[in-house]
């Protein structure tokens, strides 16, 4: 066997083992994470809104204040993960948020709801960018889109499986003397605590310590990642070694943060308000849905979204990431979401929303393969956290502004038009960034543009 053939075989088996050993577990952590943070969207139209006398604006603020808490510790948390290692830090985050999430079972006022949502954000701070950073440190850049795509499948699948699960738990009204929505909070919180404890013993911080890799696989991964990081350092100079200036002083990071803002604004406008919009179908179209009916309808857009995400990231991996892999879905989402307002039936409305959800989820994992191409070490931790902070601001804005505009205008027209605007803005910024980089030269750490990846 030639050296090149042997190297290719080692690469193939190493990436396969990482895909099977780490990605499903981290994706399961993300599944529980996303379910916990969006559980409020299932609770509000199924008893919590009435029990706590919430207006749409109050519900939107309660949904969004989570992200303000997240922002407080976003960058420090990711820097701590870089310092202490993913195994300890991600485990700590999960146990913390599971405990806070459990307290929602006994919330009894709007003020308590606000306080717990804020604390939930503080407890979860750093999980998502930490998971992205962790997975990015296990595979070379040419495999990153595939790995992040597999990881990101957890997010749409959370709603596919989580919405019916939430509906079933809400149907257990009276268990332990609790209202159905309180039963749901009780049982969706416990897995986070259990997974956090398991993660402490299961996760490994770096390939060099992975006993489930052969020596050849460990050596190959370690050498490939070290060479990549050295190349980035060589292009970026002393700043790439990792202080905050390398991330906060990089214009490309700030543009990517704005692009991400638009996607996340659309993501959470749908996540927090889709169950409420579906409940509104009953009056709008003179029909009646049970709790489980509404749960299944909520899940519908996310199954096709998961399928589209899988094949879109697969295409980007095989053919190289291009500008249109991110900008194209942004245009589709920006145009489709306002169209949902003009459909004449629940079926047509959900069909259009499915297109929007598919567009958002197709772009996100491809997008997250970009920052680690030109940042390394602590700069990567800070840069990814900074971009995700923009997403957290969008999460707060999407929840609060959508609810406020709904109360002010009496309908969801203005809120959804705003979603469309932000997604189209993301597309425009993505195209502008690619054009700027073609003029300025190659991305540091690669020999291609930021929207292009090696096959």
UniProtKB/TrEMBL annotation:
Family annotation (InterPro entries): MFS, MFS_dom, MFS_trans_sf
Transmembrane segment boundaries: 18-35, 55-77, 89-108, 114-135, 147-171, 183-203, 253-275, 295-312, 324-342, 348-368, 380-405, 411-431
Cell compartment(s), UniProt: Cell membrane
Pfam families, per database record: MFS_1 (PF07690)
Domain of life: Bacteria
Gene3D superfamilies named among the record's database cross-references: MFS general substrate transporter like domains (1.20.1250.20)
PROSITE patterns documented for this protein: MFS
Keyword Ion transport: no
GO MF entries: transmembrane transporter activity
Domain Major facilitator superfamily (MFS) profile: 22-438
Keywords for this protein: Membrane, Transmembrane, Transmembrane helix, Transport
GO CC term, one of those recorded: plasma membrane
Role this protein plays: Component of the tartrate utilization system and may allow entry of tartrate and tartrate dehydrogenase.
The protein's name: Putative tartrate transporter
